[in-house]
Structures
1.
Amino acid sequence: MKQHVNTLLIALAIIVGTAVLGTSYSKKFKAAESISVTGLGEEDFESDLIVWNASFSKFGENLKVASSELKADRERIKSYLVSKGVKSEDIVFSSVDISKEFDRNYDNYGNLVSNQFLGYSLNQSLRIESTEVNKIEMISREVTDLINQNIELSSMAPEYYFTKLAALKLKMIENATKDAHERADKIATNAGSSLGDLKNSSMGIIQITARNSSEDYSWGGSFNTSSKLKTASITIRLEYGIR
């Protein structure tokens, strides 16, 4: 009788254990049934803000004379830019950088043998930040006209920005999310299933590159400032359960 009871208990334990394991495996299997997809949102746009930097300098043995000549050049540069349609308040001049120049001579052992003072080098830069992108872009290309006035203005390539980037980013996120959802739904339908609840989502880094370029994406996010016409993109990764 005792042996029959033990056999019955063992059989019952096996049945219960099998049921528990079966339930656990079923839950685990169902938990693993999900679809992960990545959606892409892209938008082309044109920059609405331009930043242009340039610099000019003077050299002279007398600091006062060199400073006066630099000031005269600054006034002529400003007058020229204003005559071209640049707003006076958009032109910002930096403080003057002054350095002493020397003619130093060394012997074969690297020892200084003479140190003749040559004069003062004065440098100043200007910065224009404007929403009149096309106008400033054109002026930056025509500043060689100042050479006729004996003014050597070193112009840097303009930088282009977009002031409505926050709104553009929201639109890209919406498009990327829609794209990801459509991809997941298509995969589930082709597999004879349907999408369940959204389990997880993550967003990539915004990438801004020159339009129609082969620029590489950066791990921390690309941010092109050299092109007026740009393309912004962002990815959204979604994970859905399956019914």
2.
Amino acid sequence: MISQRWPEWWDWELELSLHLFKRMTDRGFSELDLRGMLERARGYRSDIIEGRWVIITAFRGRTWEVVVEPDADAKRLVVITAYPYEEF
């Protein structure tokens, strides 16, 4: 289920994972693009990995998913990866 009511962690400072930096290169987007995707987010849902969330957004006319993991101790939102949504 996709929620549009944002939790407390939504406003935390971003931290970009090393995995994300490789995906940015592979998938042709920048940190600025990512921040824009998050600003235009339409909602979110829980991920298959407990404690992670999938942000639903758009980029270049397509739906994208951005996986994040809140770090409550550091009050940071760690961005794990981002990818274009592919319906199977």
